[in-house]
Amino acid sequence: MKHKTFIEELAIRIKIENSQLDNAVVIFPNRRAGLFFRDELSKLIDQPVFMPEVFSLEDYLMQFTHLEKIDTLEAIFELYEVYKTFPNRNETFDKFFFWGEMILRDFEEIDHYLVDTKHLFTGIKSQKELDEAFYFLDDEDKEIIQSFWSSFLPDTTQTQKLFLETWRILLPLYDGFKERLRQQGRGYGGMIYRTLAEQLEKDKIKTDKKLYFAGFNALTKSEESIFKYFVRECAAEIVWDLDAYYFNDPQQEAGTFLREYSKDTLLGKTFPKDAPALIDTEKRMTATGVSLEVGQAKALGEVLAEIAQSPDFEPKKTVVVLPQEHMLFPVLHSIPDAVEKVNITMGYPLKDTSIYSLLESALDLQRLRKESEIKGVSFYHRPVQELLLHPLLSAVEEEKAIKWLDEIKKRNRIVIPASELDFEHELLKQLFKKSEQPIDYVLRLLRSLYDYWQDKDKELEVEFISRFYEQMQQLERMIGDKSEALTFEFFTALFKRLARSFKVPFTGEPLDGLQIMGILETRNLDFDKVYILNMNEGSWPAQPRRGSFVPYNIRRAFDLPVYENNDAMYAYLFYRLLQRASEVHFYYNTVSEFNVNGEISRFVRQLEVESNHKIERRLLSNPVKTQTINPIVIHKTPEVLKRMARFTTGYEGIDQSKLTPSALIAYLNCRLKFYFKYVAKLYEADEVQEDMDAAVFGNILHNAMEILYGEFTKREKRDVIHEQDFFLLESGVAGALEKAFMKHYHIDKKDKFKLEGRTIIAAEVLKKFAHQILKHDKQYAPFKVLGLEASTREGYHLEFPIKSGDKAIKVKIKGIIDRIDFKDGKVRVIDYKTGKDEKEYDSIEALKERKDINKNKTILQVFYYSYLYWKKFGDEHIIEPGIFNSKDLFKEDFSWRVINKKGKTELLDFRPLAKEYESFLEEMLTEIYNPEVAFDQVEDEKVCTYCPYIGICGR
User: Fold this and answer.
1) If residue 513 lies in a helix (H) or strand (E), which one and from where to where?
2) pTM of this prediction?
3) What kind of architecture, by CATH, is found in domain 6-66+204-270?
């Protein structure tokens, strides 16, 4: 390394200035710098001596106070206890928590920055009060305050009134909260620092030790006051880590705080006469754009593999900085074997582990559960499926888990009674057991998980489970007897919020090996080679996301931190990392996604423009080869034709079947789609449907009307329906729909069925459809029911002779007709439609038009049914195709008859069209079985938008 590190320089200085090293006390912003300091100082000592005391700032200051620091979560509980004492404040703790957290942050900052709370939390009623309340501010600050409050005065909206009411209780809430904590001998961080800043001056605390405050930058007002006291009263030294590049230039935000301190009459004396100029020394810098975050990790791995072969490679003088914690594992997986030792200075966030996702699903399981007197406890299907598929659970009772996953999809089980989940393993029993206390539930589940996994040679999973267990135990201790009042709704939200701060610390030798650090961990430390990942705008500097009850204008006027302070702090950390480095390599994501904008950080751009350094720009990417997607064409080979034989006479395989009008519609829609579904048998995967799709909706209506008329004719032992029968038929609609739902979802026992979720709404809509159909049937009565859906399944089919090449074959076709009825020598062939289906047609010839198939499919279908009836019974009766479609069903002039577009006339008899339709069918079936006509893709790609096979086609 070309330059001595800051820690080395400090060690040399303290060695020179202190003949007795144990007389010195060195205080750093964090504990890690102290480890490196002790190591460097030991290199300068060749005989046994007592070393200086080394502290982090917080550890050092806590010895001067009797207050014990309270945990953040516990502090919010105590704040709530004070909040409840105010009149008309009836929020429950779960409602209070998330903005209580914000209030606590404000109180922390207010105390850290020694703000006069009486002046800050002034209740404003008028412009005059505004002028009087902030008399102590200078004109510029008054203008800032007035620009905010003027929007509230003189007239206020309801929202503004609510804000003012909350604002006015903050002062008594602040005072009451601090008094409650004082009585307990506890305090939050800001409160302790403020108390210390006041107490030091009052008690005139002294020390015989030589104090060194080393490597500080952005001090809060309370820290600044404490530093000044020790400098003035104890001759403390402040060792600043700075560089002329940003310190001497007022335009550089990185030096904002340091320049401010240098102007102070007391602190200014602690600054060096001449700031070192290290950033401007020669350095190699590169900026590498890589698509996606994992690409950055891989690119880093390749570079490390290369430099690790160099004989002068020193891992401990090389650092990988990760602004985003979730990049830790991708980086660890990319480090080459040649790098033998790695020291991780950052914790791995537990929210990125598999155990977190499991606990999240388990809490959702309990949060979303339903309870009823009949079924008892039932669980919502989504968390049940997530848990049964979870990698930490899927192998516990694998066969039974697979059975249940299939059951949920096949029967569309939106909720599953807990009594039916018949798992035998204790872990799954604990999981699917009703619980009233969230923390107890999570602790029991974690214990069971630990017992299951500790013998499975999964050390990492067991470590994560243990860490979560420790955090939950700590949470239980903090909440105490309040845990019984926690709901799963609140605890789930609380858990997700707290889990962001749960981390797994990594143990290792901090002074040896390749160093992997977060941004804040780099303070005071210097490295020869620096590799920074995620050097994107919004990542470094990070976007400020903290809410506050203190508006921006007022924060500025009272010198509370604003986002500019955040940027200045991150700018300092950025530039000081460059000071003593000889190589700096930036990696950034070029893809704009996952809250990343694909732009390199402005800090790098500023460095590139404002400094003398040349940054070598590189862009890593795989060459994109634009390649035309080749059309998919399936030729009718002997193998394909063999598969298609299952629809023909003489086929004896177990998959023998008959072609339906839906198959013909699919063929006209897209030949390839027909192949995928009916030849290759690539059926769509089952999904639990909370929103009922059109097909299911229609099927249930068909089944309900079949059940309604079928049970009536069977019960009355007659098939003629009279006008007076409709009172009974209408009263049976609800029961028929219930049976139709049970039939669709394969439920055999009535006590296991209950409409849930959006199916309740769907059932109401279907009920209206059914009653409207009955209304029109009543007007048409009397009529005789010739056939219902069930009776037409096998009754209306035929073997259609065609030619397949030179070979004569018979294709089996069938149609399931919703209803056939008879009146006055006329047979109605009725089809129910719940969509916006057209009842008009041009001609039989027009049905072949592929581009119009979606318009013509209903006519094609009802003509198909009419043809099957004609083929079976001939010309004995008039055949009238009928469509009960929801588009027209509720119109006053509703007619079920099909209409010819050309003449705008109703089709009163299908028989004159029967032969022509037969020719159409023959042409269609012959083409399907023609070896020369391949299964190819439809030309109009709009048709592909909602096709289930779009992923295969690549369109």
Assistant:
1) none
2) 0.71
3) 3-Layer(aba) Sandwich (3.40)
